[in-house]
Amino acid sequence: MSATVASYLPCGRHLIADLYGVAAEKLRDASSMEALLRAAAEAAGAHILFSHFHSFDAGQGITGVVLLAESHITIHTWPEHGYAALDIFICGQAQAELALQYIKQSLAATHCELNRIQRGQSKM
């Protein structure tokens, strides 16, 4: 299914999540993380446009983005601290919460601090 710019209002749900207690090996592999975030986008019902992930020096973390027709999912990881910073912004009918649930379960995070933000609602 093709998504067009005209099919989405400029508003949506933005989740900012700090995931703790994640096994270091899960936070070091850029290809596995890319596959995970792409699967999370699909679980949310979003339309993937492009993704790019970068590994830092051996044993260090990664940074990555999945661009969506509905906005984006990004992650930055610190394996030495078992920590991942996650940003999920989704407009339209896709469900940001489903993407977050998929990621938390897959990473087996022991703790999640979550901020929910409604974007673009006040002037619509």
Automatic annotation (TrEMBL):
It catalyses: S-adenosyl-L-methionine + H(+) = S-adenosyl 3-(methylsulfanyl)propylamine + CO2. The modification Pyruvic acid (Ser) is found at S71. Its EC number is 4.1.1.50. InterPro entries: AdoMetDC_C (IPR042286), AdoMetDC_fam_prok (IPR003826), AdoMetDC_N (IPR042284), S-AdoMet_deCO2ase_core (IPR016067), S-AdoMet_deCOase_pro-enz (IPR017716). The keyword S-adenosyl-L-methionine applies. Keywords: Autocatalytic cleavage, Decarboxylase, Lyase, Polyamine biosynthesis, Pyruvate, S-adenosyl-L-methionine, Schiff base, Spermidine biosynthesis, Zymogen. The active site is at S71, H76, C91. Is synthesized initially as an inactive proenzyme. Formation of the active enzyme involves a self-maturation process in which the active site pyruvoyl group is generated from an internal serine residue via an autocatalytic post-translational modification. Two non-identical subunits are generated from the proenzyme in this reaction, and the pyruvate is formed at the N-terminus of the alpha chain, which is derived from the carboxyl end of the proenzyme. Gene3D superfamilies: 3.30.160.750, S-adenosylmethionine decarboxylase domain. One of its GO terms (cellular component) is cytosol. Its cofactor is pyruvate. It holds the Pfam family AdoMet_dc. It comes from the Bacteria. It is an enzyme of class 4 (lyase). The record marks E70, S71 as: Cleavage (non-hydrolytic). Binds 1 pyruvoyl group covalently per subunit. PANTHER family: S-ADENOSYLMETHIONINE DECARBOXYLASE PROENZYME (PTHR33866). HAMAP family: AdoMetDC_1. Heterotetramer of two alpha and two beta chains arranged as a dimer of alpha/beta heterodimers. Belongs to the prokaryotic AdoMetDC family. Type 1 subfamily. Catalyzes the decarboxylation of S-adenosylmethionine to S-adenosylmethioninamine (dcAdoMet), the propylamine donor required for the synthesis of the polyamines spermine and spermidine from the diamine putrescine. This is S-adenosylmethionine decarboxylase proenzyme. The lineage of its organism: Bacteria, Pseudomonadati, Pseudomonadota, Betaproteobacteria, Burkholderiales.
